[in-house]
Design a protein that fits this description.
The structure holds two protein chains of two kinds. Chain A is α+β, with helices and mostly antiparallel strands. Chain A contains ten helices and four strands. Helix content of chain B is 35%, strand content 24%. Classes of the chains: A alpha+beta, B alpha/beta.
Chain lengths: 302, 224
């Protein structure tokens, strides 16, 4: 029955109420905005770093060092065993003499290498794997360690794993902050709506006397909560965008020094819509809780 | 059955005791027929307001039954009460107007609550304001109106839904004789088009000048 008209009325009532006290409405939205900008900002930074890390090709390499006294025969034997392993895409053998030559030619270390009277380097295999899955790499590494005459196996994806781990930690912190501050948003909204209900006491009482259903009385308050959440979400987005623009001044300079085109990206449309939906929903929930608790208390006086 | 159909309000063996023990009404039995105009009189504290509150389901009877247009009000579910109240027009001594909106918006409120279409809402609200001679003031804030005008606005809001029953609690309580007469003339004109009216008043002059059935309450009872 004319439900669209009823919603239009409730929305109009709230917009007029906002317009009547624009400052306090804006302040309430700013409080929510600042609270939400923390997790949103952190999430954006983590996301940006991830895209930076994603540009670096994480092709895991495994280096197998043979024991110092290993003969050419045992090296051939290991070569044969490596060929049997399906997880290995390709490998190459670096004899100890070749490794020494490379060391002698490399900048900085040439003097050190020249001072050595005998070659301390072992023979080595450098292996490229098919999989990038850390668990599979780890089991491959353990298998290689068991081969005869193998001294040590170096898995050089550790740094990538560490970076990934840190990024994940950053994202988890952002999610945790979002959860905590989301809860704060519900509480803040619930409190604003509670005050609103108390200041609207007469109106609620009169509406009930005239035959308003609970749904009719509840509706504007729910709109109030949702709109306030929406405004808070917009404020958070604006704060993050402004902060990113400010940070990008320094980032661009730093990136130029590294000959990189890295630039902090503002959250995408999808992220922004998700944020606005999230903040509106939480505002609605806050209002719903307040209305549920306080509307029943206001009955026409007996 | 024909007589029952015409009973708009019927009280049978109604007792009303407020929490705390004060007995406001004792063993009330009466009926109000469709289209009647009934005065409820008696000194302050005789239970006039309580009687009206029982009809509007603002309070429930301790024992006995209050039936309003076929519905036992005391047994109504909470969710059904709004729909009962939409059949009633309530007029209060203290007007109970909303001072954060215009005269016209005050009158439109019951129509918004009922969910009338927009054009119809405006038309009906203006018609109601016309009936109480407030059409020129529709944009004003109720706070700027005189006491008599505020009472007329309250009347307009009560009748805009075209209720079958109008309940008025001391509608002329704060008004001087001229304004009181004006309100009473309005009530009479509503009554002439078939509206049932229940008017609580302690003003005996009003009743002597305007004929109607009278229920005289004395300490919560109706002496035979």
């Amino acid at each position: 029955m004319n439900w669209l008209e009823q919603h239009r009325l409730a929305l109009g009532l709230i917009l007029r109420r906002f317009a009547r006290s624009p400052l306090s409405s804006l302040l309430a939205m700013m409080v929510i905005g600042v609270a939400l900008s923390l997790p949103l900002g952190l999430y954006t930074l983590v996301d940006n770093t991830r895209s930076l890390a994603g540009n670096v090709k994480i092709q895991p390499q495994i280096t197998v060092f043979l024991s110092p006294g290993a003969s050419a025969g045992s090296a051939r034997e290991i070569e044969a065993r490596l060929k049997e392993k399906h997880a290995i895409r390709q490998f190459r053998f670096i004899p100890r003499d070749q490794a020494m030559q490379e060391l002698l030619q490399s900048a900085g270390l040439a003097d050190v290498a020249a001072g050595l009277d005998k070659n301390p380097l072992p023979d080595a295999f450098v292996i490229e794997t098919l999989s990038t899955n850390p668990a599979e790499l780890e089991s491959l590494r353990n298998g290689l360690l068991k081969l005869p005459k193998v001294d040590s196996v170096l898995l050089d994806t550790v740094w990538a794993k560490r970076l990934n781990g840190m990024l994940r930690l950053g994202r988890d912190i952002a999610l945790l902050l979002a959860a905590l501050l989301g809860f704060a948003l519900v509480v803040v909204t619930s409190n604003t709506i509670r005050l609103q209900i108390l200041s609207q006491r007469d109106e609620i009482e009169i509406s009930k006397l005239i035959g308003a259903t609970d749904a009719f009385i509840r509706r504007p308050f729910l709109y109030h909560g949702a709109l306030q959440g929406l405004g808070g979400g917009l404020a958070a987005w604006l704060i993050v965008v402004l902060c990113l623009h400010f940070l990008n001044i320094g980032v661009d300079e730093l990136a130029r020094l590294y000959a990189s085109r890295f630039h902090l990206q503002v959250p995408g449309t999808g992220d922004m819509l998700a944020l606005l939906l999230f903040s509106s929903l939480l505002g609605w929930i806050g209002a719903f809780l307040a209305v549920g608790r306080h509307l029943r208390e206001i009955e026409p006086r007996a | 059955m024909a007589t029952i159909k015409n009973e708009m309000i019927s009280f049978s063996q109604v007792h009303m005791r407020y929490p705390g023990g004060r007995e406001a009404l004792k063993n009330l039995n009466f009926t109000v027929e469709r289209g009647e105009m009934v005065f409820i009189t008696g000194p302050t504290g005789a239970g006039k307001s309580t009687l009206l509150k029982l009809v509007a389901a603002i309070v429930k009877p301790s024992t006995g039954s209050v039936v309003v247009s076929g519905q036992n009000v005391g047994k109504l579910r909470q969710a059904a009460i709004p729909y009962l109240r939409r059949k009633l027009g309530l007029i209060f001594q203290d007007h109970k107007l909303l001072y954060d909106r215009s005269v016209l918006e005050n009158v439109m409120l019951p129509l918004h609550i009922t969910g009338f279409p927009r054009a119809e809402t405006l038309k009906r609200a203006r018609a109601a304001l016309d009936k109480v001679n407030l059409l020129g003031l529709e944009k004003a804030n109720p706070i700027s109106l005189s006491g008599g005008e505020q009472q007329r606005l309250c009347v307009a809001r009560a009748i805009v839904n075209r209720p079958a029953i109008v309940l008025a609690d001391e509608p002329t309580g704060n008004l001087d004789a001229d304004y009181a007469n004006e309100i009473m003339e309005m009530f009479k004109s509503f009554n002439q088009v078939g509206v049932t009216l229940l008017i609580a008043t302690h003003d005996e002059h009003l009743i002597t000048r305007h004929s109607g059935k009278t229920l005289h309450l004395k300490q919560g009872e109706l002496p035979a």
